[in-house]
Amino acid sequence: MKDGLRKNPCSVCFIAINMTNFAYIYLGLLFVVLPSGYGIDPSTNNIDFCRFRYYADTILTCWESSYLILASIDRTMITSRNANTRKRSTRRLIFICIISIAIFWALFHSHALIFAQILGKGPTYFVCYYQPGAYTTFITYYSLFINGLIPPFLMILFGIRTVKNARQLGRNTGPAKSSNVGSVSVGGTHIVQSKDQQLIRIVLVDIITYII
Fold first, then answer.
1. How many CB atoms lie within 10 A of CB 122?
2. Which of 73, 82, 111, 127 gets the highest tally of CB atoms within 10 A of its CB?
3. Membrane-spanning regions, if any (predicted)?
4. E strands along the chain, which residues?
């Protein structure tokens, strides 16, 4: 069972999500511990650190949501009644998508390495923030749509589609074929293994958690 789960394309997405979350947590702790514990905030003293902070925060947020969307798409494909669609759920394609997503967001958000600035709010008070003006307005609306609206919409869309596919498969269940991992034979041709059913539930729970 464990070997089968590790080799599952959806599991690769979860590994990418967990790695992204770990990086986000560790960097977040770094940015909190240094100012609160040691009275040091490199992001207000060093422009490079300031820009890296916003750049890392932006791409990690997009990586997490994109990988979760990718996992939901994979579950939608694996529950499809179309054999050609199911065949697209492969580890090779998932790896290509993960790498492509990482490169795309890393390049797309390179503007954060240019427009993040250290702003003086007082004689001795400085903050690391985006350059005031049109860029701040752009980032506000950009974050609203790219991080706030579009990811949940796509997750809900593919989540509903996956549930719908799974229910259709359940209504058309034929004689079950037994195996060491368990499976459900659908229409005499398509077999949904128990590991896939588990991953479907995990994806749906993660989607609900992300939205909440």
1. 7
2. 73
3. 12-34, 54-73, 93-119, 139-160
4. 116-120, 126-130, 183-186, 190-193
- Class of 2-211 in CATH: mainly alpha
Strand 126-130, strand 116-120: pairing: antiparallel
Cβ(100)–Cβ(187) under 8 Å? no
pTM of the model: 0.82
Find where tokens 């669609």 sit: 85
* SS3 of residue 173 by DSSP: strand
> Domain boundaries in the chain?
2-211
Picking from 73, 78, 62, 212, the residue whose alpha carbon sits closest to that of residue 151 is 62
Determine the 3-state secondary structure of 3 from DSSP: helix
Half-sphere exposure of residue 7: CA atoms within 13 angstroms, side-chain side: 4
Cα–Cα distance, 59 to 39 (Å, whole number): 27
Go through the chain and tell me how many residues it has.
212
Taking Cα atoms as reference points, which of 51, 63, 40 lies closest to residue 112? Answer: 51
Tokens of 158: 């593919």
| Helix 194-211, helix 9-38: angle, nearest 10 | 30
